[in-house]
Amino acid sequence: MYGLWKPRVLGAWRVPAAGPVILAVNHAHNIDGPMLMGTAPRPVHFLVKKEAFVGPLGPFLTAIGQLEVDRHSTDRTAISDALAVLEHGGVLGIFPEGTRGEGDFASLRSGLAYFAVRSGAPIVPVAVLGSSERRGRLIKALPPLRGRVDVVFGDPFEAGDGSGRRTRKALDEATHRIQARLTEHLKNARRLTGR
């Protein structure tokens, strides 16, 4: 990441040094996951669509601890694997919108709330800004080489309401709380970086 682009990492000290944590990352470009893995202060295990585990990329993703997920069904193996990362005190990376989009946290899915409430792990919001910059691209699918990409970590927070409930209503309420916190972090990150 540092050889091809100029990442500027802000607030990495906010990621707890030990124990389970979930990094909730906006997702506007293919490079967002690798950029976070290359700049985070701890190793990150992402839920990655199974379509990416083809050819030589598959064994590589497995070797670096990424988790294969079938996005078109309830993938119980992926859910168990992700919870195991948290149970062992690891870092789980999640794109809460489920796929690439505008990267604005506008339409969250309930997976992030489920993992946070079920595990009790704090969520650290992360904004990756500049990865979808269109000016100066040599390769259409990548941000401009040597271009600046900002990775901004926010303050950790708890998703649950303290009741320990894991009902559908509790998860929906947690998703709304999470969305508000992630949207606020993205606004603050844009203000801080001028993007």
Distance between the termini: 20 Å
Order of helices and strands: EEHEHEHEHEEH
Percent range of helical residues: 25-40%
In percent terms, what proportion of residues is strand? 15-25%
CATH-level-2 architecture: 3-Layer(aba) Sandwich
Rg over C-alpha atoms, rounded to the nearest angstrom: 16 Å
Using the coordinates above, name the CATH class: Alpha Beta
- Return the structural class: alpha/beta
| Arithmetic mean pLDDT | 84
The profile of the biggest β sheet is: 7 strands, mixed
Shape: globular
The named CATH superfamily = Glycerol-3-phosphate (1)-acyltransferase
Number of strands: 7
Number of helices: 5
- Structurally, the number of domains stands at 1
Quote the CATH topology.
Glycerol-3-phosphate (1)-acyltransferase
Low-confidence stretches: none
Strand order of the main beta sheet, please?
Answer: 1-7-6-2-5-3-4
